[in-house]
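Record type: ASSEMBLY
Status: queued
Input:
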Amino acid sequence: MIEIKHPEYHAHYNPETTTIVIVGILELKGATEYNPLQSLLLEVAEQKPSLVTLDVQNVEFMNSSGISTLLRFGIKIRDLGVSRLKILGSNQHSWQTKSLKNLQRFVQNADIDIK
Amino acid sequence: MNDLQYWGEYIEPINETEYITTSFIFNAIPRQQRWLNGGFSTDFLLEYWDVFFPMHTKLTLNKKVAIGNNIRFIANELFENLLHYADLTSTQPVRFSLYFPEDKIWFYITNPIKTEQVEPFQQFIHLLLTENVDELYVQQVELSALDESGETSGIGFLTMLNDYQAKLAWKFETKTETIMVTTMVEVAR
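Status: finished
Output:
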């Protein structure tokens, strides 16, 4: 299990379900402060599971630097060309309905499920 | 530079419209990074919006929450931009205002900018106002994926344009040797 515990958010990867779960509020400043999360995401991508699920349903807020971090993860998955990407989102949080769809610009066959 | 320059469809705010203004001198704020990071100001704006505009009680709770989230996102990006584009050593105050005309929200942030930053910033503004924003967004994110630092240039403005259908405009003015820039953002309510 890879895990990040930050005062404002938690993230962990469960290798059995090949699922990354992020929870909390992400308004960190710039790429530097997103480094730990970016590393976690890229590390999972490099393990090349056949399916990677990214569950952000309980991410209440995310700023544009955070969204870029997710997009760079999508680009990594696309470039490695092995894993399928599934995103679990919630329409309760407007950043998700507005911005998660951008992942499909980079990973055309990503499955985005916003409930 | 001329004393006054406009970029995009800049609208001078109308004082009769309900509004809130806050201003501060950046270099007088201790631990500025934590202050910005903690979302203090955006939280304050959100509470203000929620409590002090009773005419919006007609809106459904979901709509109110959505508007609050949009305010939070855009205000957060504008404050974060200060770190990139503002002259943080200046004693000129940064001024932030929100207006609620009709079915819109107007955001204004005015800050001092270093003389040498004016041209690169205006070149970027020119790109934002003339290029296909969709393509620019994809291009900047792809570039950042190749860059070790991972910084995505201008992603805040590009996200506002792309995902929030925002309109952006700017005013540059010279005040007693300091160049002040006002960024205006308009979104639907």
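Annotation: Chain B has one domain: 4-188.
Annotation: The longest strand of chain B covers residues 178-188.
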